[in-house]
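re: the backbone from monday

yeah here it is again, tokenized this time
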């Protein structure tokens, strides 16, 4: 434990989490801290300001003003002042949130576009965001309720590598929201309380305020931690499957005249979990489409329950069994 006399345990926990994340970055690099001014991002920014200089890392706090609420410019300005008080470089970026896909998704897309733009401008190695263990539990529970499959139940990864060289870091994924709240209180910080986070019209708010507390009350404490552990275990499984697919894909795939094909024999020889992932992998890679479980099982039956079925229409392509191969061709 590195809790020094007088150092609040919550502050110490948040700093340790940030320190571990920054240790993976080169010294003298630059990081973006996504700062809304709320509890989690404020605690993250304060901890980054404390830990980053130890590695010669420059922290740039970016507050995105979505302009969706009255007084949003004042909230953004207050967050920037807090960041400057910590010793971070502070930036405020105003964005226009496009319609379509739901307000939450549209705001998230606009926010990440703004963060990406600043990251490119300053040559940042990483963007730090303040998702906590509670956010992870909510994400997994929502995925479970929607039946979205293993990829959704994996939740958010601590590190998301991207092709542009700037990764997304989530240092607080093992930190509870109550800890960030306690850290802000201990440091005398005044977080912004987003009214949207208490609006029951949003599904995630109902999960946060009603569903998870009910599960904790009826099943006992530790539900949020259990959901987060489940996500971590599923990510490990997914990484293992990805390695298996990379090892065997060239042996089972052939390019067809108007698409791509998989060997029936090779698919039949593999366990169902790997067979289904191979089918989904090929469709995503070749046609940019994701299959539902029902669609995946329909294709798999061309391998395991072949009775002369005709072609199967899928998103963006068609699957058919021809001469011992499952051929996927563009529609």
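seq for it, each position gets an aa:
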């Amino acid at each position: 434990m590195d809790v020094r006399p007088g150092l609040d345990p919550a502050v110490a926990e948040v700093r340790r989490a940030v320190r571990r994340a920054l240790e993976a970055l080169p010294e003298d690099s630059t990081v973006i801290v996504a700062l809304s001014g709320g509890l989690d991002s404020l605690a993250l920014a304060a901890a980054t300001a404390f830990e980053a200089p130890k590695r010669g890392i420059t922290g740039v706090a970016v507050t995105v003003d979505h302009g969706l609420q009255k007084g949003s410019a004042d909230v953004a300005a207050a967050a920037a002042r807090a960041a400057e008080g910590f010793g971070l470089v502070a930036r405020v970026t105003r964005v226009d949130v496009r319609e379509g896909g739901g307000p939450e998704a549209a705001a998230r897309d606009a926010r990440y576009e703004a963060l990406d733009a600043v990251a490119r401008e300053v040559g940042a190695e990483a963007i730090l965001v303040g998702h906590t263990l509670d956010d992870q539990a909510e994400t997994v529970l929502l995925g479970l309720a929607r039946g979205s499959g293993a990829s959704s139940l994996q939740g958010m990864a601590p590190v998301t590598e991207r092709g542009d060289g700037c990764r997304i870091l989530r240092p607080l994924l093992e930190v509870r929201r109550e800890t960030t709240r306690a850290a802000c209180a201990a440091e005398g910080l005044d977080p912004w309380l987003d009214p949207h986070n208490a609006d029951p019209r949003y599904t995630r708010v109902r999960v946060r305020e009603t569903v998870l507390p009910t599960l904790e009350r009826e099943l006992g404490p530790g539900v949020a931690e259990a959901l987060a552990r489940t996500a971590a275990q599923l990510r490990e499984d997914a990484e293992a499957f990805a390695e298996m697919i990379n090892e065997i894909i060239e042996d089972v795939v052939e390019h067809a005249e108007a698409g791509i094909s998989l060997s029936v024999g090779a698919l039949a020889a593999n366990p169902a979990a790997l067979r289904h992932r191979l089918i989904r992998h090929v469709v995503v890679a070749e046609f940019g489409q994701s299959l539902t479980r029902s669609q995946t099982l329909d294709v798999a039956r061309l391998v395991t329950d072949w009775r002369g079925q005709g072609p199967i229409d899928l998103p963006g392509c068609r699957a058919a069994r021809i001469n011992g191969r499952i051929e996927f061709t563009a529609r």
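The chain has two domains: 9-227, 257-330. Residues 77 and 224 are 33 Å apart (CA to CA).
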